[in-house]
Design a protein that fits this description.
It is built from 12 helices and 9 strands. α5 crosses α6. It is globular and about 55 Å long. Bound molecules: phosphoric acid mono(formamide)ester. The site of phosphoric acid mono(formamide)ester has 10 residues, from α2.
């Protein structure tokens, strides 16, 4: 597999490669601010969004991004496809490729699904989330948002709060932030922290109140409610009490700090509504940047041309 063909993870990207995605995304923000926010860069290309799991932000923003670049977009929905009749991921992809698509944006519950496809089809593959493994474009748009606010990520202090064990967003962000020189810490109940987390070079905290005042960025992760049913934390109420981003906690953060969340949010659990909607929150900026960032990713991997 040619690593430049696909975007499967952040783990192996260097600082220059990450910066290339972010710099181009900044340029596309200017395109998106125009009265007619469309460029012809990918005219004649066809992009397939192949989502085997639910998505709002990622699927829609990839579709908008492709259309802003003048590509044709085809959306696959598992619910109405022949996957329902037992067709495998590979057969699905091969059949779609026979219809001549140039790129596939795939989300799947199995870690490694995007790589599996990338190694077997000629179209470029973008990982839009594979199980608990990685969600590279979410991390890139998060890095873009932090760079907008702070100018640089070097030595930026970022605290990721919540279910680190099951979070592809946390993993991709940790890789990207560390590569760009940020200081990354996590805070969660011990049952939601992977045993080998320190190998990723992050600090680990268990008491949010002790540390929240030290950070430039507090990134809350969605609590997957099924984890409570499997006994990984005692109750949603207790989780909010110990780890929720409340107004009282956020008030103790640094003056220029920001609050982030990849979405979808559980309001009143990992983040209170008055924090999610506050001036400190950059949640909708993350979503807005997502379109520009995904334009950048599609442009680079589809071999787009500046016209
Ligand atoms: N952040 C994110 O991946 O959101 P969606 O699941 O809505 O795509």
């Amino acid at each position: 597999m040619n690593p430049k063909k696909d975007l499967l993870s952040i783990e192996y990207l260097g600082a220059d490669e990450i910066s290339q995605y972010l710099d181009l995304a900044d340029n596309f923000l200017e395109v998106l601010a125009r009265p007619i926010p469309i460029v012809p860069s990918l005219r004649g290309k066809t992009i397939l969004t192949l989502f085997f799991e639910a998505s709002t932000r990622t699927q829609i923003s990839f579709s908008i991004a492709a259309k802003r670049l003048s590509a044709d977009v085809v959306s696959f929905s598992q619910a109405t496809s022949s996957v329902k009749k037992g067709e495998t991921l590979l057969d699905t992809a091969r059949n779609i490729e026979a219809m001549k698509v140039d790129g596939v944006v795939v989300r799947h519950s199995a870690p490694g699904a995007a790589r599996f496809l990338a190694e077997r089809i000629d179209a470029f593959v973008i990982n839009a989330g594979d199980g608990a493994h990685e969600h590279p474009t979410q991390a890139l748009l998060d890095l873009m948002t932090m760079r907008q606010h702070f100018g640089t990520l070097n030595k930026l202090k970022v605290l990721i709060i919540g279910d680190i064990s099951h979070s592809r967003v946390a993993r991709s962000n940790i890789y990207g932030l560390k590569t760009l020189g940020a200081r990354v810490a996590i805070c969660a109940p011990p049952t939601l922290i992977p045993l080998d987390i320190k190998e990723l070079g992050v600090e680990v905290f268990y008491n949010l109140d002790d540390v929240i005042g030290d950070f430039d960025v507090a990134m809350a992760l969605r609590i997957q409610l099924e984890r409570q049913q499997s006994g990984l934390f005692p109750s949603v109420r207790e989780y909010r009490t110990l780890y929720g981003l409340t107004k009282e906690r956020v008030r103790r953060m640094k003056k220029k700090s920001v609050v982030m969340h990849p979405g979808p949010t559980n309001r009143g659990i990992e983040i209170d509504p008055d924090v999610a909607d506050s001036e400190k929150s950059v949640i909708l900026e993350q979503v807005k940047n997502g379109v520009a960032l995904r334009m950048s990713v599609l442009f680079i991997h589809a071999g787009g041309k500046i016209e």
